[in-house]
Design goal:
Number of strands: 15
Distance between the termini: 89 Å
Shape: elongated
Strand order of the largest sheet: 1-3-2-4-5
Structural class: alpha/beta
Largest sheet: 5 strands, mixed
Number of domains: 3
Helix content: 25-40%
Length: 299
Amino acid sequence: MGSQLGKTHQLSAGSLREVRREMESSGMMSESLDEIFQCAEEHFTKEPDCVKNNAKMTLHWNGKSLVFVSGRGVCEINVSYKQGSEKPSYNVTSHSLNIFLGRISAGLRVLSLANLEGARRSLDVWEETPKSLKTCFDCAIRGFRKEPACVQENAKLVIHCSRRNLPFISGKGECEISVSYSDGKPVYTVDEPTGEVYLARLGTCPAPLNVSSVVRARNKLESFGVMTQELRGCFEYALEALEEAPKRVQENALMLLDTTRGRMMFKSGKGEITITVFSMNGEFTHDVKMPKTNRPPRK
């Protein structure tokens, strides 16, 4: 064991397995070290070639360490037990933008708001990071933050920018989210897999408020096969109310459609005027709330 600790090993999946077998055969393998080896091999095999061929991996346990190096060892990998943790952690420090983006391109990032924000902060480390890439990450964070839980927990978000595809995946990745850069602006689009997901998104991510947008939402629910008599009646009433509303209301309102299937939202302008469509005694009606600044002063 002493010879293994005192030397630097070649970093590869095969070398990790070989050193692990040698320590097992010498009777020096502990349960914690075995789990560290398992963690190291499991994660390292998923790394892109830019990491596999140019990294320094250190396994830490009980005040001891084992070192593995490939290439110039530019990318630092540390595998250890963090205080209070039941499982070993695998941490990678990327010293170049190319390696950082290469790891994301390999699909190694779980999709979560925290991981998107962490990746965005990391981009500020490198001066050469394109502004367009930062802008796309900012757009992804703004959009993903609004998504309902059924999307956040089961989506594949891909940022297409700087000639790279950068995927973040949660669950089975069934809801596809694309963020791209076009004509100097980021574009955030979502392909909902089911009508239930589409309904849930209308409850947290307002669609544009105009007649064509409301009709498009109604037709999409019809095509998904989730349209009910209640929803159909709600949409019909909402369209009538919208067409009859003054232009100043149509261009600056938040329309809420409240049904037993949940709430759907449509927004125009700043959404300062709230229009709520709801059912009362079996009939649809609506309520309009003007912003306080537009209300006449009390006498």
